[in-house]
Design a protein that fits this description.
The complex is a heterodimer of chains A (108) and B (120). With 108 residues, chain A is an all-beta fold. Chain A is built from no helices and ten strands. In chain A, the strands form two sheets. In chain A, strands 1, 3, 4, 5, 8, 9 and 10 form a seven-stranded mixed sheet that branches. Chain A has a three-stranded antiparallel sheet with strand order 2-7-6, with no helix packed on it. The radius of gyration of chain A is 13 Å and the shape is globular. The relative contact order of chain A is 0.35. Chain B has 120 residues and is mostly beta strands. Chain B has strands at residues 3-7, 11-12, 18-25, 35-41, 48-54, 59-61, 69-73, 79-84, 93-100, 107-110, 114-118. The chains are: A mainly beta (108), B mainly beta (120). Chain A binds chain B through residues 1, 31, 33, 35, 37, 42-45, 48-49, 54, 86, 88, 90, 92, 94-102, and chain B through 37, 39, 46-49, 52, 60, 62-63, 96, 103-108, 110-113.
Chain lengths: 108, 120
């Protein structure tokens, strides 16, 4: 089955840029979606179809997807961005939904 | 406004069958492309997709849990039910139902989740 690989953790200082990767075999040929989850809350869609920002999500959040890596980039990171981030795709070859293992973003 | 809410038991015993209901509003599960999915999250762990049912009645299941899961929707299509057989303590976690607006679309709307504990 299709596997998405994320780094368990990413740390960044306030004001810096955070990049969270999502690796998968030819993931560039799929649509990648990104979710933010804060403690005790349901996930929130932040980026869909690789690079589209959900309404209300700051422009500091952006996404890209090429080759074997999808990337969520958060510019000018703020303390409020601290959360777990998950990537997700739909694998048409098996008709399965797949989530990455999640990345904990820590703002130093 | 799309909303979803999960309901069901908070505690089940090992070997029992879990039945969860997702009650939704603001959309129709008869609309082309729409699906309702179930996703779970063990405490402190990652999201795990369980199942999805689409507007056309097609259903897909997690390959690792396929034999234990059944997803259905009722005649009025405002409820989706997930059953999971032979529950085990490792199945403890928060169970979410969620709306997907198209076959390749993202999960745009999530329920609040319901915590299910499996313990004797």
């Amino acid at each position: 089955s299709y596997v998405l690989t994320q780094p368990p953790s990413v740390s960044v200082a306030p004001g810096e840029t955070a990049s969270i990767t999502c690796g998968g075999n030819n993931i560039g040929g799929k649509s990648v979606h990104w979710y933010q989850q804060k403690p005790g809350q349901a996930p929130l869609l932040v980026i869909y179809y690789d690079s589209e920002r959900t309404s209300g999500i700051p422009e500091r959040f952006s996404g890209s997807n090429f080759g074997n890596t999808g990337t969520l980039t958060i510019s000018r990171v703020e303390a409020g961005d601290e959360a777990d981030y998950y990537c997700q795709v739909w694998d048409f070859s098996t008709d399965h939904m797949v989530f990455g293992g999640g990345t904990k973003l820590t703002v130093l | 406004q799309i909303t979803l809410k999960e309901s069901g038991p908070t505690l089940v015993k090992p070997t029992q069958t879990l039945t969860l209901t997702c009650t939704f509003s603001g959309f129709s599960l008869s609309t082309t492309g729409v699906g309702v999915a179930w996703i779970r999250q063990p405490p402190g762990k990652a999201l795990e997709w369980l199942a999805i049912i689409h507007w056309d009645e097609t259903r897909y299941y997690s390959p690792s849990l396929h034999s234990r899961l059944t997803i259905t929707k009722d005649a009025s299509a405002s409820h989706v039910v997930l059953t999971m057989t032979n529950m085990d303590p490792v199945d403890t976690g928060t169970y979410y139902c969620a709306h997907r607006g198209g076959v390749n679309a993202a999960i745009g709307f999530w329920g609040q989740g319901t915590l299910v504990t499996v313990s004797s």
